[in-house]
Amino acid sequence: MLSNIPNATIKRLALYRRCFVELDEMGVKRIQSGELSQKIGIDSATIRRDFSYLGELGRQGYGYEVRVVLEAFNNLLKTEDAQSCVLIGVGNLGRALLKYFSSDKFKKRVFRTPVNLIAGFDTDESLVGQCVGELPLYHLNDLKSYIEEHRVTYVILTVPPTVAQSVATSLEGLGIKGILNLSSTVINVSEDITVHEVDLNMELETLFFYVFQKEQAKH
């Protein structure tokens, strides 16, 4: 159960899963923890400890069978029961995400994400009724009824910072489980909704600090 897994491990699970999806697509059958460590930049001891929460996935000296690990992720995430997601805010970033999630590269992955993006919403009347890739665009006024009809449980928020909180507040009580917030401002919602904040400016600054620290360590 995810509730028994430390937060630090949970943050690495998506990276592990993406790596094993790529290995499977490349036809790799088995990989040693040392090889995996070099590939993703996480030490072997941490990988083995993280994987221990998923069950008995590997043996010492033998490594991990790619399909066995992917099956463990599928069982954990229940990927056969994909959750529906919508994107709110079809600006440059929102449009780019819609194009990515409707691209052949994303759709052809053997092991899909447990969350499927199915539509976009905006207040710009000129966008309503159009599609980005195969994904339809609707007016924000139709959001509540759409969420209820399609049983949407996840939202990607790419609206301007000035309206992010009001939009997030409007999602309360609609059955939304999680929000991926890309609006570059912190939002506050009820405890029923899990919010994952991703600020691209902060991520770039964090990268700068990592590089700076590495360069300082050389002197």
From TrEMBL:
It comes from the Bacteria. The keyword Zinc-finger does not apply. Homodimer. Residues 15-54 bind DNA. The keyword Metal-binding does not apply. This is Redox-sensing transcriptional repressor Rex. Gene3D superfamilies: NAD(P)-binding Rossmann-like Domain, Winged helix-like DNA-binding domain superfamily/Winged helix DNA-binding domain. PANTHER family: REDOX-SENSING TRANSCRIPTIONAL REPRESSOR REX, REDOX-SENSING TRANSCRIPTIONAL REPRESSOR REX 1. It comes from Turicibacter bilis. SMART domains: CoA_binding (SM00881). HAMAP family: Rex (MF_01131). Keywords: Cytoplasm, DNA-binding, NAD, Repressor, Transcription, Transcription regulation. NAD(+) binds at residues 89-94. It is found in: Cytoplasm. Residues 79-186 form the CoA-binding domain. InterPro entries: CoA-bd, NAD(P)-bd_dom_sf, Rex_DNA-bd_C_dom, Tscrpt_rep_Rex, WH-like_DNA-bd_sf, WH_DNA-bd_sf. Modulates transcription in response to changes in cellular NADH/NAD(+) redox state. Belongs to the transcriptional regulatory Rex family.
